[in-house]
Amino acid sequence: MANASQQPEVTSGKEFQSEEAKRLAEQERTGRARQKQALSLQRENILSQRTSSPARRAALEAALAQIEAQIQNLG
Fold first, then answer.
1. Suppose 56 and one of 42, 43, 51, 70 were both cysteines; which one would form an S-S bond, judging by CB atoms 3.0 to 4.6 Å apart?
2. How far is it, in rounded angstroms, from Cα 70 to Cα 75?
3. Model pTM score
4. What span, in angstroms and rounded, lies between the C-alpha atoms of 52 and 57?
5. Distance between start and end Cα atoms, the chain
6. What's the CA gap between 16 and 9, in Å, rounded?
7. What pLDDT sits at residue 44?
8. Which pLDDT score, from 0 to 100, does residue 62 have?
9. pLDDT in the model for residue 14
10. How many C-beta neighbours within 10 Å does residue 39 have?
11. Is there a contact between 74 and 39 (Cβ–Cβ < 8 Å)?
12. Which of 48, 51, 43, 31 has the alpha carbon at shortest distance from 70?
């Protein structure tokens, strides 16, 4: 009888862990999507900028490369 009374507790614990894992996975997915969106906005901002200064252009190209690498890493 002791085993029968313990069985539902174990099942409830697994269900809780499963729900917790699902919630954490959803939070991670949402966080990555937000990061990706923010990086995409930064990328668009950089692409919209025009300059005749070679130094400024080099800085924008470096920033663009960094942002594109971060987007790539996010998947």
1. 51
2. 9
3. 0.68
4. 7
5. 51
6. 10
7. 96
8. 97
9. 60
10. 19
11. yes
12. 43
Angle made by CA atoms 63, 71, 19, in degrees to the nearest 5: 145
The pLDDT score that the predictor gives to residue 1 is 46
Mean pLDDT by 10 residues, the chain (75 residues): 49 68 91 95 95 94 96 90
Measured at the CA of 59, the angle between CA 67 and CA 56, to 5 degrees, comes to 140
Look-up of token digits 């080099």: 58
Residue 11: name the closest of 48, 28, 3, 46 by CA: 3
Token pair in block for residue 29 = 């997915």
Contacts of 67 (CB under 8 A, 6+ apart): 39, 42, 43, 46
